[in-house]
Design brief:
This protein is of the alpha/beta class. The chain has helices at residues 2-24, 48-59, 74-79, 144-155, 166-174, 185-194, 223-238, 241-249, 251-256, and strands at 26-31, 39-41, 44-46, 63-68, 85-89, 99-100, 110-115, 133-136, 160-163, 180-184, 204-207, 217-220. Helix 2 (48-59) crosses helix 7 and helix 5 (166-174) packs across helix 6. The radius of gyration is 22 Å and the shape is globular.
Length: 258
């Protein structure tokens, strides 16, 4: 009898240990609605950044779980340790002992877009002075002093606004409600594709005035998980998975490679 109970207790202990070890491999990752980088699709969280981190961590034996937050709350959720990691971030967590990945997506580029029949085409940031601008949320913090100053000056005349709803940015541009929109080019292409202006013959100009393409980092609380993510990322780049994901989601990137 004692032998049977010992065997049962041993099996139970192994089961608990196995469950504990499995839970140690779960990584919760905060994401926001930021298509085509991360978005909800038929009840699942998808997107180029989501698939990259999922494939990279899975290759290293982790179980990534994605948790959605409003864009403005994502940094707060990470700071409060509601998640183990956060995607698509700049190195902005000053004073916290966190661990950033290398740049994951060098294909990210912010642009200024205007309808071609507008007077005064944009060839530099200074050309934005006096124009009505609808930018993405927190844009005035990202693109340097010159842009920040213009945003502040234009705002005095109600000519600079920021908005979380980037689909509305695209719609307001084509409806001539605003002269310029500032957003990532891939995001513009994504929302144009699903909008009523998908097949429009309205011509628009894309001005790449914010410098070369740049990328965002992922941020982790655990250094080991960060290191494993980067090792997994290296692996999926070598086996072609990374390239496949980029072509799947990024229209401008896909076009440039064909």
């Amino acid at each position: 009898m004692n032998t049977k109970w010992f065997a049962f207790a041993f099996i139970l202990f192994c089961s608990v240990l196995s469950t504990s070890q499995a839970s140690d491999r779960v990584v919760t990752i905060g994401v926001a609605h930021f298509p085509p980088y991360s978005f909800a699709e038929e009840g699942n969280i998808a997107g180029v950044e989501v698939e990259i981190i999922r494939e990279s961590l899975s290759a290293m034996g982790y179980w990534p779980e994605f948790v959605g937050f409003p864009y403005g709350r994502l940094p707060i959720a990470f700071t409060n340790k509601q998640v183990d990691a956060s995607i698509v971030t700049m190195k902005s967590y000053d004073g916290l002992e966190v661990f950033y990945s290398d740049i994951v997506l060098p294909e990210y580029q912010t642009v200024a877009i205007q309808i071609n029949n507008r007077e005064g085409m944009i060839s530099g940031i200074s050309d934005l002075k006096g124009k009505s601008i609808l930018a993405h949320q927190r844009a005035n913090q990202f693109y340097g002093v010159e842009f920040s100053n213009i945003a502040e000056e234009n705002a005095k005349n109600e000519k600079y606004h920021e908005i979380a709803d980037q689909q509305r940015q695209v719609e307001m541009l084509f409806r001539n409600r605003v002269e310029v929109i500032v957003l990532a080019y891939e995001i513009f292409l994504y929302y144009k594709e699903i909008s009523e202006f998908r097949d429009t013959d309205i011509e628009y100009n894309v001005s790449r005035i914010f410098g070369n393409k740049f990328g965002f980092h992922n941020v982790f609380w655990d250094e080991t998980v960060r290191n494993d993510f980067e090792e997994g990322l290296k692996h999926i780049k070598e086996n072609g998975t990374y390239e496949h994901i980029l072509r799947k989601y990024l229209k401008d990137y896909h076009a440039s490679k064909n």
